[in-house]
Specification:
- The chain is α/β, with parallel strands linked by helices.
- The chain is 24% helix and 29% strand.
- The chain has five helices and 13 strands.
Length: 204
């Protein structure tokens, strides 16, 4: 069973709809008890980094999430701001992130390759995996995903970048450290490419 972490940030229903069409059991987890039977976790997120961290802390779900991810090694997939929350910190706020993947979230507006490009980065973009299998199994090298973001994840360790996209230059579009995964794009809005990725996560 996949638990979509419902802490008031992110389109939880869109993920539930994708998994329902795939006949994969998924629930919205609003309370710690809802996480008890989870074999996989999806952490969605939109908006401001600090707001998302505050909402997660105030939801009462964070201790249960940390128990599952850090002690029981339950796989987790962070999406958009949910991916950024996996980092240690962000230019967008002052609160610490979860720190599950070492890195810092930086602004595209201050990144030299993207400074002259429209902000935020919005629309469809090719995503190129740098590791085989995993989230990107059975996806072609020209797979396209939908982005809407103004910040990007700068990994402290290059090996934690699992896929890149180009916006003036290559930036990290997906991260992985062991059982912790993250994608900057929105698979729930990315048609069959996103459906395949979410199914891959379910089948890991």
């Amino acid at each position: 069973m996949i638990a979509i972490v419902d802490y008031g940030v992110g389109n939880v229903q869109a993920f539930l709809n994708v998994y329902k069409r795939q006949n994969i059991e998924a629930i919205a987890a609003k309370r710690p008890d809802d996480l008890a039977a989870a074999k996989k976790l999806v952490l969605p997120g939109v908006g401001h980094f600090d707001t998302a961290m505050e909402r997660l802390d105030n939801s009462g779900l964070r201790p249960a999430l940390e128990e599952l991810v850090l002690k029981k090694t339950v796989p987790v997939l962070g999406v958009c701001v949910g991916m950024q929350m996996l980092a240690s910190s962000s230019d967008e706020g002052s609160l610490p992130g979860l720190g599950w993947i070492e890195g810092h979230v930086r602004s595209l507006a201050t990144w030299p390759p993207a400074k002259t490009l429209p902000q935020p980065h919005m629309g469809w973009n090719d995503v190129r995996p740098v590791t085989e299998g995993g989230l990107f199994a059975h996806l072609d090298t020209d797979s396209r995903f939908y982005f809407l973001h103004s910040f990007y994840f700068e990994c402290a360790r290059p090996e934690h970048t699992s896929a890149v996209a180009n916006y003036g230059a290559d930036f990290t579009a997906a991260v992985q450290s062991g059982h912790v995964y993250g994608v900057q794009f929105h698979p729930e809005k990315s048609h069959h490419f996103g459906t395949r990725l979410l199914r891959n996560f379910a089948e890991l």
